[in-house]
Amino acid sequence: MKKIMILDSSYPVNSRILRMYNYLKLISDVKIITWDRKGNFQDYSENHLVYNQKADYGNKLEKLKRIPSYYNFIKFNIDEFKPDILIASNWDMLALASLYKGKNKFKLFYENRDMVSSKYSLIKCFLTFIERISLKNTDAMILASRFFEEKYNYYKGRKVVIENKVPQEIVKYNKTKSGKLRISFIGSVRFYDILVNLIEASQEFAEVEINIYGEGPDRNKLQRFVEEKKISNVIIHGRFDYLDIGKLYSETDLVWSVYPNTENSNKKYVIPNKYFESIYFQTPGFFPALTKTGNLVNDEQIGYVVDPSSKKDVFDKIKYILENKGDIENKKKKLVQYNDDFIWENEILKVKNLLD
Questions:
Q1: What is the DSSP string of 124-171?
Q2: Alpha-carbon span 297 to 257, nearest angstrom
Q3: Residue 273 half-sphere exposure, CB side, CA atoms within 13 Å?
Q4: What is the C-alpha separation between 205 and 322, in angstroms, rounded?
Q5: Max alpha carbon distance in the chain (Å)?
Q6: Same CATH fold, 181-337 and 3-165+345-355?
Q7: Where are the domains of the chain?
């Protein structure tokens, strides 16, 4: 049985990594090295080797100061476990893993769930340079979007696309009834300015309710904004268990999946979880214009596309939906008919080919 180690930098572990872990443990001896950057937990999940030092999410300087200590923690646990394969999640963990690989015998896989991005061109170029150097020491890439492939044509190693589809175990529930139009953000709370656009655009409509489910680097900042502005139609719920996501969608009329669409962000090539969840739960969503996912949604007429930077565009879309109440139902019918495989269990089987 192969020994596999997954390297990440947050706790609780990202839902994609956790799903990958749950599959790999069926066919291998697997452990996760990760970092509890809030230091909130005492009891960690089985086979999770957790570095417990505070470095708040969103505080990049504090994280950078802790990296040398985390690197030593990684080296110690790799030496103890002696994995055959090390899967590094995102460019920063790939850089640390590549640095240590050297004469070590393990194969290194790059789990690329979110390409290098920065709003500053020079920083993005520097980080891309680090990623490219690290890839020279990498045996295979796992890409979280079919649209990432074109950005890595230069990489000659093995590549496989494993998108963030929905596990079959996730239960679907009937929609609950409400007198409100319920727009929900479900996931890691980030892209503060874009969420503020949604919140401010909704203030003109008494019948709109905004629900924010999840933690993330912008959660506290968003909470302060809502409290300071005394906004009453926004409910910030906090952390949720992914297995309960069906309940959240049962109380959602539209899911919010809007993120930056600039070239520097590289988010324009992402296919987010919420795209597949939208299909699975037959719940239309908002997606960003001028992105690959936005184009898919527009072409198939299964949701709404908005300019992430335009509060007016968000306002106009909400107004249109409220004035054309049958349009959401038309989108739901399109989702029922939409022919795209959205099941995780079919997707994750691809990783087995890399292990052989």
A1: HHHHHHHHHHHHTT-SEEEESSTTSGGGGTT--SEEEE----B-TTSP
A2: 12
A3: 15
A4: 9
A5: 65
A6: yes
A7: 3-165+345-355, 181-337
Would you say domain 181-337 falls under CATH 3.40.50.2000? yes
**3-165+345-355 is classed CATH 3.40.50.300:** no
Locate 115 and state its tokens: 């390409």
- pLDDT tens sequence across 231-280: 999 999 999 998 999 999 999 999 999 999 877 667 889 999 999 999 99
Residue 16 per-residue DSSP state: H
* pLDDT lower than 70: segments of the chain: 41-43, 264-265, 339-340
> Residue with structure tokens 């679907």?
172
Q: What is the pLDDT of residues 268-307, one digit of tens each?
A: 899 999 999 999 999 999 999 999 999 999 999 999 999 9
Query: Which tokens sit at 116?
Result: 């290098």
Strands 254-256 and 234-238 turn out to be unpaired
pTM: 0.87
Beta bridge partners of 330: none
DSSP tag of 243: G
Kindly list the distances between the CA atom of residue 15 and the CA atoms of 8, 10, 11, 148, 184, in Å, as whole numbers in the listed order: 12, 11, 10, 20, 18
